Amino acid sequence: MQKEKLRNARKRKGFTQQQVADYIATDVSNYSRKESGDVAIRKEEWEKIARFLEVPVEEIYEEEDGKQINNFENNTNSNNIGTLSNNEIGTVSGNYYCNIPEFLLESQRDYIEILKKENQRLQEELNALKKK
């Protein structure tokens, strides 16, 4: 579900997606997916974006479409990060999951690509030295 209230507020304030992405420490493609509703926006991100746009959270917040799970609970009695609290199939209590923020995954994917290119460059350099 597209975040029209968020998009409209951002445009009204004259900010680009890149500026908001920089503020919430993600890349612009990930922020664009958040604004288009493809990636969930966490509670902390809603709050940061509202601060950046200088608007109340209620002015930009729109519910997720129910496909993403965003609820975290502090569970100090386990090694798990949170509990599964909303599931399209039904309620599942007592099951644990680990939810890694999308911006961290994107960052790691980008870094892996950089390392692959560097490995390829070094391999080509090594092959060139072997031919001499």
UniProtKB/TrEMBL annotation:
Keyword Magnesium: no
SMART domains: HTH_XRE (SM00530)
Keywords for the protein's UniProt record, in alphabetical order: Coiled coil, DNA-binding
Classification via Pfam families: HTH_3
Keyword Magnesium found: no
Domain HTH cro/C1-type: start-end pairs: 6-60
InterPro entries in UniProt: Cro/C1-type_HTH, Lambda_DNA-bd_dom_sf
GO molecular function, a single term: DNA binding
Parts forming coiled coils: 105-132
Protein name: DNA-binding transcriptional regulator, XRE-family HTH domain
Organism the protein comes from: Chryseobacterium culicis
